[in-house]
Amino acid sequence: MRALRILRQVNWIAAEDTRHTGKLLKHHEIDTQLISFHEHSKQKKHDLLMELLDQGDLALVSDAGTPLISDPGYELVQRAYAAGHCVTPIPGPSAPISALIASGLPSERFVFLGYLPRKMSERRQALTEVSSLPYTLIFFETPHRLLVSLEDLLAGLGDRQIVVCREITKLHEEFFRGSISSALVHFTSTHPRGEFTLVVAGNSGEKEIWSEAQVKSAIMHAKSLGTPPAKIASQLASESEWPRRKIYQLIIEMD
What we know:
By secondary structure, the protein is of the alpha/beta class. It folds into three domains: 2-82, Cobalt-precorrin-4 Transmethylase, domain 1, CATH 3.40.1010.10; 95-200, Methyltransferase, Cobalt-precorrin-4 Transmethylase, Domain 2 (2-Layer Sandwich); 212-254. Helices cover 45% and strands 16% of the residues. It is built from eleven helices and eight strands. β1, α2 and β2 form a beta-alpha-beta unit. The longest helix is centred in the C-terminal third of the chain and has 13 residues, at 212-224. The N and C termini lie far apart (62 Å).
């Protein structure tokens, strides 16, 4: 109710997609003027929005979820503060928090990492950087990258517990709970659709023995980088708790 009241009272609404927000406003009979503000236009629109703020109140909304959470806007907030304006949050839906609440995983300490990088090498590097953290990890992912990201999670973090949240608060809301390897099997057979939020258990501090699927995934990644078989076996032996000889034999069998 507060959000609707604010949207009626402000002079302008800056929206990620005016078509989407327009439907919301029409449904609630709100006729406040809309201005487009998204990732590709933010630099051009900053000056305009700052000029408008000098004349009256401005609301910032996103297509779904909470503005600034994997959405543009923090630079606008910085400029608004620098110009002496007041910035007030209107709490609303937030996919990372909703996913964490429903996950059943520890919620006292967590790290939200947004979308994983698109390139495999960058994605795996990002996962390596957080693999030792004891905090619950939260990621966004798209349906067409879900499977490769699950493969990289398995290779980079081990076969931890994961909750894959799909279409949170929408008609086809779904929560899959289990190991990363079981999630990979499940979504390989179901053709992922919709928007995904992944909640992954933090590092427990205990050294786990990798599954064969995890070792194979790591071997394939190392081979794609041109790493010699002997070096792959040595590197993975220390990480996976597998004997070096057994890993080397697996590499030969995969050729």
